[in-house]
Amino acid sequence: MVKGHDFRVFKKSKTKINPNTKVITDTGYQEIQKSYSKSALPKRKMKKNPLTKEDKQKKQELANESAANENVICMLK
């Protein structure tokens, strides 16, 4: 069983991702954007800058796609 923050666990695993692969993650993986240009993170709501309808829709689509990823991560922990 592996404990720790998801991105820290990912870095320790030294998993290689093909540069052409789209990486869909949650906001816990914000650092992944530095390594993988094709990463997709949900936009965060800010006090002074609320999400538009389009942002909310895209966020929901990403959440649906990333659910499978989160299930695999839970199995690894």
Structural commentary:
- The chain is mainly alpha-helical.
- It has one domain (6-76).
- The chain is built from three helices and two strands.
- Strands 1-2 form a two-stranded parallel sheet.
- Helix 2 links the parallel strand 1 (23-24) and strand 2 (39-40).
- Residues 41-50 have a biased composition (Basic residues).
- Residues 51-62 have a biased composition (Basic and acidic residues).
Key structural traits:
two-stranded parallel sheet; globular; mainly alpha; 3 helices; 77 residues
- Share of residues in strands: 5-15%
What is the number of domains? 1
Oligomer: single chain
What is the helical fraction, as a range of percent?
40-55%
Low-confidence stretches: none
What's the average pLDDT? 79
**Distance N terminus to C terminus?**
5 Å
| Inertia-based shape | globular
Nearest-angstrom radius of gyration? 14 Å
Strand order of the largest sheet: 1-2
Structural class, from helix and strand content?
mainly alpha
How would you sum up the major sheet? 2 strands, parallel
| Elements, N to C (H/E) | HEHEH
- Helix count? 3
Number of strands: 2
